[in-house]
Amino acid sequence: MKYGFAILLLCTVVLSAISCKEKDKGTDGESEQTTGQHGSNLTKEEVDSLLSQWEYSNDSGEVTMMIFGENGETEYIVDRPENVFIKTINGVEYKIVKASKSQRTPKIGDVMYMEMSYRTETTDSLLFTSSDLGEDFRMKLSAPSDKGCIEEALMLLHEGDSAVIKVDAIKFFVKSQGKASIPAFIKRGEKLVFNVKMKKIVSGIDYANANKEVYQKRIDEENSLINRFLINMNYPLKKTDSGLHILTINKGAGKRPAVGSTVKIDYTAAFIDGSVFDSTLERSEPFSFEIGKKQVIVGLEEAVMNMQVGDHCLVVIPFRLAYGDKKYGNIIPPFSTLVFEIELLDAK
Questions:
Q1: How far apart are CA 52 and CA 6, in angstroms?
Q2: Rounded distance, CA 196 to CA 153, Å?
Q3: Domain 85-202 part of CATH 3.30.390.30
Q4: What is the model's pLDDT at position 22?
Q5: What is the per-residue pLDDT across 97-148, written as a single tens digit (0 to 9) for each?
Q6: pLDDT tens per residue across span 58-79
Q7: Cα gap 321→239, rounded to integer Å
Q8: Pick the CATH number of 212-347 from 3.50.50.60, 3.30.1360.70, 3.10.50.40, 2.60.40.10
Q9: Three-class SS of residue 172?
Q10: How far apart are CA 182 and CA 292, in angstroms?
Q11: Where in the sequence numbering do the catalytic residues fall?
């Protein structure tokens, strides 16, 4: 659908021209109708030229447009151009606000540098904006989690495109984000409206190669910090193959969690320099999550799976098992080594 909106503009012009010619020629205008209905006489260069001139105008009135859907169906719509969304066969709704000339679209495994925000459609409540995370916001494209999901929508965009996308809110929270529960204000049928600018697309391999030296330097620095942290610790230590350091303060004798278990923990989370940034003890409210649902960072989930109910442990989590090279909110910088003090209260 790279040229979808150029086709909309073209069809409007063609339909107007056909209407005028039919008035002048009566029933002799059949050849004009046949020539222009799907823009079949346009070359790619002509479509590119139309595309480069296309802009939405708030001053434009309603026009008749022929919409070509993702599965090939056509439909006439009378509306303002800026209000018209293309709907794919799987239910994704999107419109290109600004189209680039690039032919590059993201593939599974690619890293996408974007500006992104999303809000509820009915109440227009802002739920997320990448500007809070800095200018270098990026994400790796995962395989579509379900039909009509945000991943599928992102695969339709080209490098340089700006678009508005609508997806089912419950599907986004449950399928794309893997949340066990959704916000109470999200009702069935609610849609989320995404504003996305696809700034740059980098292949997963190229991204890994470009960052290999940076990562190795960070890992070496982190290992030195962790070793200094552990020098004064006299608790029994277990190091996992992934790189977790688990120090047991008190040993319990209860159940060991497994994938599918719902666990309840008390924790205090800090940076390796000792600065605390979160604690369930301060809130007097233990935290629960389900193992295997990716509801918490990898390091925390792995740590809990290495504990028994009643265990009280101190866990050092390397940045690659926490938030990696990404900033998290306004609290956690990129490449942060975290230390969690955890007490496993229950596992069901």
A1: 9
A2: 10
A3: no
A4: 42
A5: 898 999 999 999 999 999 999 999 999 999 999 888 777 788 889 888 888 8
A6: 444 554 455 555 555 555 555 5
A7: 13
A8: 3.10.50.40
A9: helix
A10: 17
A11: 267, 277-278, 297, 323, 340
